[in-house]
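Tokens in:
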């Protein structure tokens, strides 16, 4: 649990196969940035899968995270931020399916609230 501007909270970082199957997850304090936590989770996650698309939230669109995803053998599917000097192509229709994983994450948030008995901002 960590303190951010919104108060005490916890973030769930999640790697999922689909809208119902979480492959691995980690928790971090609310003040932690998403990208370093996500990279740490991906480095610990050992998989033999390659060549599959990995849908990512925009918080993970940085060069270091995208390169790690490529190094792990996945295709990053994330739009560039609007202020990027050099943008890239990505599968827009596939990116729109990211909400399926967000729904799973919200289920994990509800579970986390019940177990940790923490108030969310």
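Residues out:
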């Amino acid at each position: 649990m960590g303190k951010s501007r919104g108060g005490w909270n916890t973030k769930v970082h999640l790697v999922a196969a689909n809208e119902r199957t979480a492959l691995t997850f980690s928790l971090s304090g609310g003040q932690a940035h998403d990208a370093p936590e996500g990279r740490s989770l991906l480095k610990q996650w050992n998989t033999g899968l390659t060549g599959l698309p990995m849908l990512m939230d925009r918080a993970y669109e940085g060069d270091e995270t995208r390169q790690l995803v490529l190094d792990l053998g996945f295709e990053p599917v994330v739009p560039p931020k609007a202020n990027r000097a050099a943008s890239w192509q990505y599968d827009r229709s596939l990116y729109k399916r990211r909400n399926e994983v967000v729904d799973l994450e919200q289920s994990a948030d509800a579970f986390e609230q019940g177990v940790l008995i923490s108030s969310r901002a």
